Amino acid sequence: MSKTVSAFPDTFPADIPALLVKLRETYGSGRTRPVAWRREQLQGLIRLFDEREQELADALAADLGKNPLESYVTELSLVRAEAEHALKHLDKWTRSRRVPVPPGLLPASARTEPQPLGVVLIIGPWNYPVQLVLAPLVGALAAGNAAVLKPSELAPATSAALADLLPRYVDADAVAVVQGGQETSTALLKEQFDSIFFTGGERVGRIVLQAAAEHLTPVTLELGGKSPAVVLDGNWAVVARRLVFGKLLNAGQTCVAPDYVLVTKEAAPALKKHLVRAVAEQFGKDPSRSKDLGRIVNEQHWERLVGLLESGTILSGGHSDRGSLYLEPTILTDVAPDSPVMQEEIFGPVLPIIEVEDLDEAMKFIGSRPVPLAAYLYSNSAAHRKAFEEGVRAGSISHNASTVQLAVPGLPFGGAGASGTGAYHGKYTFDTFSQLRPVFTKGTLVDTLRFAYPPYTGLKKRV
Ligand code: NAD
């Protein structure tokens, strides 16, 4: 796939310290604290989506072959809705709240008030390169912070579009887009930030956490993993369509995509038949002609994915084309739990199916592996759903639908264990980029604390 050459050059790592000085000056001036400033930034982000939707969709198409409608639904409208939601609730979120004071400390008052953290760093991956830097930015700005964004170098057209457009819509002295790859990220991580919000893989997540430890910087890690889908019963056509939709969105390059299916031996024949049918329904007999199927991000990932096809028997799919980075949606059966496709997060249009006896065996299988970002159960039995919720640890659980749970702004989105730490979306993003500071106030006219002072022998007599 041809990639648009960035019109915006990468940031020189040597320029990063000066950039940080500028952002610190802005933050230190107090300019980002008033609610009016925060409101302007959120309005700016909304205008960015209203006025530049086409440019952003073009960049996403150049980087990932995304259909414009898919870009709109999974990236642009989603972040716009986050900004609208923050704008609507900003007054409520930023308000201080009184807290009751125990009788022994009266007269006095106590309150909590959300404070911005300072200058924050947001590092994004390539798979949803707009959403995954701008959705955190919504909360960072709503909370009154200055921010550095580091989009992924593997989505260069989108990274360049953000570097070009964002400063025109938000306060350019408070928000900077730094472009570049590993060297740039490494230079950024040497700097002291007040919070780091990282979305990406486990390997780099560890690097970020280590760098943050140096400055004792709080970190949110939005990582990935192998999200299982357990299939027990249901309307097979619907189950298959929802699995295929969740899996093949962005050509399978979605962090919460169902990575693999665990299906009971009893249900397996019906599920397989309907999965094959659902792929044809959504992408046609020859998916290479479909405008709705994205492409693999680069040759290295394409090669990795094509290699994974050897991990089982190909039930359907299997065709690929290096030149266009195309990989046909592929369903694999006879997959051994220790095969390569079951070791790493697939992150592509390959769906392995493993047969199990029952829900118990499926839950043991999931529990024996690192904690996934999401876990899906397809069943109409309330008892099975309850057992799944109690027996499975995951960043999120969704019943009878895959991937769409992340579009509910009232739900926190994040991992657990190996799939991440911290969460965001809606109010949770605001909380992630705020400190809930307690403030206690007392007068000095009468010393109502005197009973608490030493010597404690006296205190003993009084109590
Ligand atoms: P990645 O970890 O390779 O890269 C993420 C970011 O880290 C990029 O901006 C990259 O430039 C930077 N980076 C790379 N090497 C670095 C280093 N040595 N030091 C510092 N920074 C470095 O991830 P990716 O390949 O872009 O994205 C895919 C991964 O992201 C998958 O594992 C996926 O599950 C995960 N993901 C998670 C979520 C979520 O919300 N939890 C969302 C999307 C993707």
TrEMBL record:
Which residues participate directly in catalysis?
A: 222, 255
Record's GO cellular component terms: cytoplasm
What are the GO MF terms of this UniProt record? aldehyde dehydrogenase (NAD+) activity
- Alphabetically list the UniProt keywords: NAD, Oxidoreductase
Q: Which GO terms describe its biological process?
A: aldehyde metabolic process
Where in the numbering of this chain does the Aldehyde dehydrogenase domain appear? Answer: 6-437
Q: Which CDD domains match?
A: ALDH_F3-13-14_CALDH-like
User: Could you list the residue ranges forming a coiled coil in this record?
Assistant: none
The entry assigns this protein to a family as follows: Belongs to the aldehyde dehydrogenase family.
Question: Per its record, how is this protein called by name?
Answer: Aldehyde dehydrogenase
What species is this protein from?
A: Arthrobacter yangruifuii
